[in-house]
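Help! Submission page says 'invalid entity' but I think these are all valid:
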Amino acid sequence: MKLAYYPGCVARSTGREYEISTRAVCDALGVELEEIDDWNCCGATHVSNEVVSTALAARNLVRTDIPVMASCSICYSRLRAAMIRLEDRKVREKVNSAFDKKYEGEKEVEHVIETIARALSKSGDKDKDQEEEKGPKDLVVRPLAGLKAAPYYGCLLTRPGGGIDSPENPSILENLIRTLGAEPTEFRLKMKCCCGPIFVPEEEAAADTLIRILLNAKESGADFVVALCPLCHLMLDANQVLLEKKFGEKISLPILYVTQMAGLALGLAPEELGLDINLVSTKPVLEKLAAAEGEKTEEEGAEVC
Amino acid sequence: MRIGVYVCHCGLNIAGVLEPDILTEFAKTLPGVEVARDLQFTCSDTGQETIKEDIKEHKLESIVVAACSPRLHEPTFRRVVSEAGMNPFMLEMANIREQCSWVHMDEPPQAQEKAKDLIRMAVAKAALLNPLTGETMPVSREVLVIGGGVAGIQAALDLADCGLHVYLVERRPTIGGYMALLTDVFPTNDCSICVLAPKMTDVYNHPLITLVTYAEILNVDGSVGRFTVSGVKKARFVDEKLCKGCLNECAGVCPVEVPDDYEFGLGKRKAIFMPIPQAVPLVACIDPESCIGCGLCAEACPVDAVKYDQKQEDFRFDVGAIIVATGWQSFDPARKEEYGYGRYRDVISALQIERLLNAAGPTGGEVVRPSTGDVAKSVAFLQCVGSRDETVGNPYCSRVCCMYALKNAQLIKEKYPEAEVSIHYIDLRAGGEGYEEFYIRAQRLGINFIRGRVSEVEEVDGALRVNYEDTLLGGFRSKPYDLVVLSAGLEANRDADVVGNLLGLSKRPDGFFEIAHPKMRPVEAHIDGVFIAGCASGPKEIQVSIAQGEAAASKAMGLLVRGELALDPVVAVVDSEKCIGCKLCVETCPSMAISVNGTALVDEAACKGCGTCAAACPVDAIGMTLFSDEQILAQIHAATAVKGQYPFIVGFLCNWCSYAGADLAGTSRIQYPTNMRAIRVMCAGRVDPAFVIEALKGGADGVLISGCRLGECHYSKGNYQAYQRVQVLKGVLEKVGINPGRVKIVWCAASEGEILAKEVRKFVRELEEMGPVGTELAPPGSPQPSGGGS
């Protein structure tokens, strides 16, 4: 299977580990990524101007004829929103007037969580390409047994509505966590805004919300939080030490990208997944995983004896 | 044809601008005119007598009155000619007041020319009029009421009390509808079932009401006065005649328990059950889905009423009218996922709180938290769940939720004075007799009113929290509650779609059945002989539903009480020689009056005479008894005979909106150019593209078609069809080189005289720019097709 890869700006800055792990996981799943040539901003920087933000997104979409995959939820949401806006003939004409290659509609855009979930689902279409692909039992070589993951959706994965899951009470991430062998925790604030967009103008309000989210994740018993969006990741991961200081709370909760979590279960090495780039140390996760594996090996060994 | 023409002075209303004596002399020159006179007031007794005397003396066969609008005095003059022994349809009016003297007061010479044209057009049509007789048809005096909720019950009782036989068909095992399940009802807080049950019993006992419960209607044929309805009565596996309604015996031994849909999932019932204690008929029912066939109930029944081999029965009856009272269904509150209905046990729906508060409900009237069974100490009502909410596709207000929430809040507060009760609202709507007082009473009882739409309900450590913006105090807040009640809105009953489709009812964008006029005809459907009552046409409180049941009953009575129907002779007629049976007319007809069996057949009782089918027929096989092709073409030819003005416009105005709008421009003295000669048609959909082409061929520079505003067509969709045809026609004109701008279609309501005037002004300007018709075919500078000269 081949997808057009739209990295988005963060992939080359604060979200390097997301890109590294996305490429590694897709490789392991047999999904070929073809980076969109000469891609530009997804439009998120110009949301106040509908035409400009739509045109920015559309310029990326017209550069490929195969389905597009984005890992950043913001990019994913902007690309989808643009496709919806472009259904309006007037908007489309206006946008197309600036393009050589016209936007003709009927594009497909998916988020990397969909790519992973589909590759792992056994009930995929049985056409020729996919018969060669392996089911989850074959691919998940190192199930994350014993690990508890707090599924953090953030706001944009499921918006605009009518997309991959319910915008109010989604479950796609919990399902993936289970498929990978870990246990999703009851994480009440999984849909709360990460406050990325208001962090600069309303730092106090953002800090109040962020500490609530982190504490709620911690109270849910999670070993780590799964993030789907580089901005969510930045707010929970890079900010964590500052928040610990500000509120006098010890949190130390690793924030893994969904691709990092999936990569571990697929048997990839931590370095291949950029786990050393995360600011909050991911070591506790790796240690717990190793310990659980050790126990398992011991048990298996015992059986043999 | 011997025609008499009467030109009215109308005092100075006409004579102040036009010269009736000259018009009269002009009329005398027209073909077929035997006598022409100008009269001071034609509608006066003297005027009427003059016409009658002339008819007798000159053996007149057809009459033209050039005076005011036919919408004003056509009935008067039809009566006059019929009193003189002439067929009332042998009359044509030329509207030289509302559409001439009153709107062209500053241009008497041009107005005079226009009046001449209008008279010439009227005389041309008058020469082609046919005598028409309104026949009468015997009708069934029986009525079908669909739906046994309070609206249907009331309609059935009123009709039966007046001596009309009623079939009341209900799809569930008991009548009573939602009202039978509610606790006390606003604004008097009287017990719902206590006021409803006597009416339910009356239905059961009424000698003129045939009650058919647990039944589905499967087919409706025929039209007003003679519908044939058929369907099935489902097997309830209990003999209605034998069952004594004791219930304890059979249900007591039944081993199967399933959620009770009459308790909205809060309680349980057995596989053999009585829907409600006050069920009518008071007969048990076995739910075949859950019955395991153990036979215990049959053994237990003291009268051997349980019949496992009972079969469904077909029914069929003939009725003259149908009342649709199919009610509503609740918005599914689980669709507002942020409120957690279906996820959190203590988030319940408004119908569930009705059952909790009901002494006959699953908790005996105790308001408890479903998760613990303890009495709730704090209760929140969340308003507008699924109403006034574009995100779920329901922009409308459900109208009753404010009041029922106020009522339930009061009931809780009265029963548990210590309980904290809050209503989270966006606007409180308490419009109705005693409603505002009811709201004030709730405030005095200490109920909290918090303004702002709730953003989410979440469960924190087993307790519900409601998060919201308080738009009065300002700021985001979070408040814990034991119980959250979602005031779910009312939606159109999807189960009624079958009936709606069988009857051909149209739906509004909100999904409810559309009534014939949103204001003036509140219980009539577009289909003759079909009436709509209660929530089938939109959310309503009980008192309004009852009033609508009564109104629908009275309309049905008015229709059928004489046992015969006078048929309007203005109908479509099919020439079966020409008809090719293509069924285009069947799709076009808004009244479902045409059927095709080889060739098309018009049901004259159902036809409303709009003429859209005649315009649609590809082989001109459909004619109209009035407003016929010949008559309209004659008017077009008469209009374009002289063409005394440039640009020259032939107009087609629909009778109900645009012609009335043009009349209003007259009564309002709104002045507009004299360039248009208007032809009255019943509907814009009547305008055959051939008429337009004929007008252009005759030399008209433009053709203006004006219909009702979109969505307001008297015949429901004729204006859309007119629009479609004009678009196609424009394409054709463009191909042959005629500027498609010469045909214009506009919308004008009866209240929009100014709009009609404005459109005429605009069209005149546009046509002036285009130049006379045909100039586009030979643009200046291009080589002339015909040589020979120079």
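Support: the input was valid. A stray whitespace character was the problem, and the output above is from the cleaned input. The CA atoms of residues 133 and 399 of chain B lie 47 Å apart.
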